[in-house]
Design goal:
By secondary structure, this protein is α/β, with parallel strands linked by helices. It contains ten helices and twelve strands.
Length: 295
């Protein structure tokens, strides 16, 4: 069994395709297929089900997968430890950002990291906070910007980087617009326009509504906050937005402070508290902690 075979096996599993795995590994597809077949012959069992439109693991493949990950992780860790001993930062940084994140200059942060550590390959993924937290816990991610509510995520270190009040944004002719604030309970029966679950604003809203004993009546979701403004500006519902963003569109919408309780959108830099960081991961956390402001 060779490390290269395990690398190809893992790539096929994650990409669910021999073609995409070959492109990811920068080799020809027949080479990937040949190495996987060789591994299967050596182990005496078929690891991948190739009959469907997407490649799937067999029972034997599922059994091998965690051991393959552990073996490759151990080899990578050994190489990185030696690089760290030599004063180098190399390897790969796998970072994540929560869906719809617009309040953190992620592109600038990654560009700064690349200029400082040009030998590090950077991979970025966007997902819900729950998915990102799971990736941090199982080692698929080095660091991530995730939404956090009132309950700290288990098994993770966090550093708060965004803490913004949420407001209800309505058209000027809406009856709510006459006041400067609105109680959360008064939004219980109103159609709400929100960012998707897992975003900072949505996490704050969902937790507050749960504590108040009702489920928010979310009728429209969009990952782009500008789309929320467009929808609310057509009178299609009440947009729940971070206060700074809502104020920047004050010509179209009236932002009302949500009270009883006041709710906030929070985003934090997160990394594992249960496994040692790779040199690249630690370097990114250090840089992000220095660059990103603390609210």
């Amino acid at each position: 069994m060779e490390l290269r075979q395990l690398e190809y096996f893992l790539a096929v599993v994650e990409e669910r395709s021999f073609t995409r795995a070959a492109a990811r590994m920068h080799v020809a597809q027949p080479g990937v297929s040949a190495q996987i077949r060789r591994l299967e012959r050596e182990l005496g069992q078929e690891l991948l089900d190739r009959t469907g439109p997407a490649v799937r693991l067999t029972q034997a493949g599922s059994t091998l997968l965690p051991h393959a990950r552990a073996a490759l992780s151990a080899v990578s860790g050994a190489r990185l430890a030696l690089d760290e001993l030599a004063g180098l930062v190399r390897g790969r940084l796998t970072a994540g950002i929560v869906t719809s994140l617009s309040s953190v200059p992620v592109s600038d942060l990654l560009a700064d990291f690349h200029r400082t550590y040009p030998e590090v390959e950077i991979r970025l993924t966007e997902a819900s906070s729950d998915e990102l937290a799971a990736g941090l816990r199982d080692g698929r991610l080095d660091a991530a910007l995730i939404s956090t509510g009132t309950r700290p995520p288990e098994g993770l270190h966090t550093r708060l980087v965004v803490d913004e009040a949420l407001v209800a944004a309505v058209v000027p002719e809406d009856p709510l617009a006459a006041g400067g604030e609105v109680a959360l309970a008064d939004l219980a029966d109103r159609p709400l326009i929100c960012l998707p679950p897992g975003s900072g604003a949505r996490t704050g809203l969902d937790e507050a509504c749960e504590a108040a004993g009702f489920r928010p009546r979310v009728t429209m979701e969009a990952g782009d906050p500008h789309r929320l403004v467009e929808l609310a500006g057509r009178g299609l519902g009440v947009a729940v937005l971070p206060a700074p963003f809502a104020r920047s569109h004050g010509d179209r919408l009236r932002g009302l402070d949500i009270v009883a309780p006041r709710i906030r959108a929070r985003v934090a830099l997160a990394w594992s508290a249960e496994r040692p960081a790779s040199p690249a991961g630690q370097a990114f956390v250090d840089l992000a902690s220095a660059v990103l402001p603390s609210p």
